Amino acid sequence: MNVPVPKIRMGFVGGGEGAFIGKAHRQAAALDSRFELVCGAFSRDARNNQDTGAAQGLPASRCYSDWQHMLDAEHALPADRRMELLVIVTPNHLHAPIAAQALSAGFHVFSEKPAALNLSELLPLKKLLESSDRLYGLAHTYLGYPMVWQAREMVRDGVIGTVRKVIVEYPQGWLSQDVAGQGNKQAGWRDQPEQSGLGGCIGDIGTHAFSLAEFVADQPIKQLCAMLNTHLASRQLDDDAAMLFKMADGASGVLIASQVCAGEENPLKIRIYGDKGGLEWRQEDPSSLIHRSIDQPLRILRSGVGQPWLCEAATRRMRLPAGHPEGYLEAMANLYGDFASAIRSNVEGNDAPGVPGIEVGLRGMAFIEAVIANHRGDTKWTELVCHP
């Protein structure tokens, strides 16, 4: 007889009504019925906070006025009632401080990226994490797509040969105008260094392109040569970036990230070429993976349960037969699913298999700092340094 597996009790910091990413996290966590939302400090606005909790069926007593109060109150509850996992969906400057206190209180942590404002803030968090028995994950959602895993497996299997070139781009258009000046809160805090960090566009979406390139190519970026732009005079941080990079095993690449490409939505795309062929994946058509070969016709691999030519890592992240698209929420749900499996199996260490962890966070911060240093300095190539 199968023994029921209890749902993982989770709490949220941030993600009040009107915040896109908080709602996306709640929907993704609910998709496979492995989590139960039991508490939250959703917003500094008392009405928003209570309304968000009420909409999720929470009693007023579990809708806390601030995250410090929530951590203290939840820690004081009996073990079978308190939250087990804290989800952090706040502006960037709160990610590391909240994560540190949550880990110290004995909670697992799943955080929006970036992991911190800078490397100097993140390194103590890494040390704290390693001294705990808790799990830590980052919401690099695009690494949850099944066909991204398929692409990585094909690269690992040598299907395209030795990797030579990686081209990754993420153009958005939502900051083409001064939407912060028109009252858009999401645009507003992203342009405040004290809340966002030193990177604007490069921290917001450039890190997604960076992590996708390293993940699919299965090798780290070692050096880069970057250019940043700020196209609106009212902005403090970059809204456009382009760079060349060199990878550890000899491949070279190009990364473009921009939020001033008027009319664009979220067309994150990666192309990777070896000496035998190439692969192409597009976030706006996530069910398809294009395979080019030097001696065979072009193939388009399609996702879907039961496709025998897809790898196990891809198929186990699918829920529907071919022809039924799975998208952003399902990709995020895959991260939540892997995190749930790690919690319930009492996995050793601090990483949940299949979920970006603290090392991915360190590399993301090193990327941001290397881009900014290279843009501001006179050195042609800047090394990515994760540890002092």
Automatic annotation (TrEMBL):
InterPro entries: Gfo/Idh/MocA-like_OxRdtase_N (IPR000683), Gfo/Idh/MocA_oxidoreduct (IPR051317), GFO_IDH_MocA-like_dom (IPR055170), NAD(P)-bd_dom_sf (IPR036291). GO terms for molecular function: nucleotide binding. Residues 8-138 form the Gfo/Idh/MocA-like oxidoreductase N-terminal domain. It comes from the Bacteria. It holds the Pfam family GFO_IDH_MocA. Residues 150-280 form the GFO/IDH/MocA-like oxidoreductase domain. Gene3D superfamilies: Dihydrodipicolinate Reductase, domain 2, NAD(P)-binding Rossmann-like Domain. SUPFAM superfamilies: Glyceraldehyde-3-phosphate dehydrogenase-like, C-terminal domain, NAD(P)-binding Rossmann-fold domains. This is Oxidoreductase.
